[in-house]
Amino acid sequence: MRSYRLIAPAKINLYLEIIGSRADGYHELAMILQSIDLSDEIDIHAASTENIRVYCDHPQVPTDQTNLVYKAAALMAQEFPRAYSNFGGVDITIKKHIPVAAGLAGGSTNAAAVLVGIDLLWNLGLTQSELEEFGASLGSDVPFCIGGGTAIATGRGEQLSPLQSLDNLHLVLGKYRSLEVSTPWAYKTYRQQFGINYIQDSEGLAARTSAFHSEGMVKAILNQDTGKIVQELHNDLEKVVLPAYPQVLQLRELFASQTGVLGTMMSGSGPSVFAIVESLTQAEIVKQRIREAISDDDLELFVTHTIKHGIKIV
Ligand code: ATP
């Protein structure tokens, strides 16, 4: 029986700006997304039945039709009915290492892996941009997760312009295990508090998006200038998440006060916070100091780094 094992990396947001509202109800965004070396493993097997079955032993991850990997497989079955009837169903096993509901695109990267895996399993020969198009209908972060690396993401996050990869930027990442921030809540609250400042007209939105392509963070990445990158870190959602979640604010402030930390920011809608550090040795020291300062077992800390790739076949 045929099977594939795929590595599905998490992402962080080096930049997240909310520009305005879209007619479809989503927000218009300008983001820089970055893959990191913190990954789930997805095993995908051709099944003897025509069912799609999902296995995962993480208590916060559903295994029914609400799991994004189920939705990804169902989408492929619907789009390629002949391949589905030829090859049958799929069994998908998720080994979770990425914290759940963390602003790290855990579900999205799992779905991206399933799109890539089914393309292989059913010999579909799809291009990356075709896979990205299917991904966009599952979730805004899914297209980025397929190719990964470093990219500008605009629109609702699905329009990608790859950037020169930021390889091996050292990171420490913290997430309270039991703390979840709902992404819809974060965007809704931001709209209530700051919607007055949104750009309303489509020409204004397009002008802001195109200007973003030549601004500070993009330039800093093109120049591989870590000093500038840390100055340009930005996340509008911090304005609503940090006041509502004092633990996240405390973690961010603690990261900022550590020797060797060049910059710190919340990722996506949180509650993960990352710190960019000078070296692997500094990363281990910072992790240790945070562990000593916050003696709460609920806080998970990871030493990791940026990577150049998205979904990888093992
Ligand atoms: P994003 O950064 O894209 O907003 P996130 O990292 O904040 O995503 P996820 O880890 O994707 O959040 O989890 C969000 C919700 O999705 C959780 O409540 C979880 O139960 C559900 N979920 C569905 N499928 C998955 C999956 N394959 N992995 C993790 N969570 C999943």
Bound molecules: adenosine-5'-triphosphate
Structural class: alpha+beta
Radius of gyration: 19 Å
Bin the strand percentage. 25-35%
Low-confidence stretches: none
Shape: globular
Q: What order do the helices and strands follow? A: EEEHHEHHHEEEHHHHEHHEEHEE
Overall pLDDT confidence: 95
Mind summarizing the main beta sheet?
8 strands, mixed
- End-to-end distance, in Å? 17 Å
| Helix content bin | 25-40%
Number of strands: 12
Total number of helices: 12
What topology emerges from the helices and strands here?
Layout: E1 3-21, E2 27-46, E3 52-56, H1 68-79, H2 81-87, E4 90-95, H3 106-121, H4 128-136, H5 142-147, E5 150-155, E6 159-162, E7 170-176, H6 183-194, H7 202-212, H8 216-222, H9 226-232, E8 234-235, H10 238-244, H11 246-256, E9 261-266, E10 273-277, H12 280-293, E11 299-305, E12 312-313
Parallel strand pairs: 1-8, 3-4
Antiparallel strand pairs: 1-2, 1-12, 2-4, 2-5, 5-6, 7-10, 7-11, 9-10
This protein binds adenosine-5'-triphosphate.
Describe what you observe in this structure.
This protein has 314 residues and is α+β, with helices and mostly antiparallel strands. Helices cover 38% and strands 28% of the residues. Strands 1, 2, 3, 4, 5, 6, 8 and 12 form an eight-stranded mixed sheet that branches. Strands 9-10-7-11 form a four-stranded antiparallel sheet, with helices on both faces. The chain starts with a strand and ends with a strand. The mean pLDDT is 95. Bound molecules: adenosine-5'-triphosphate. Adenosine-5'-triphosphate binds next to helix 1 and helix 3.
Short description:
The chain is an alpha+beta fold.
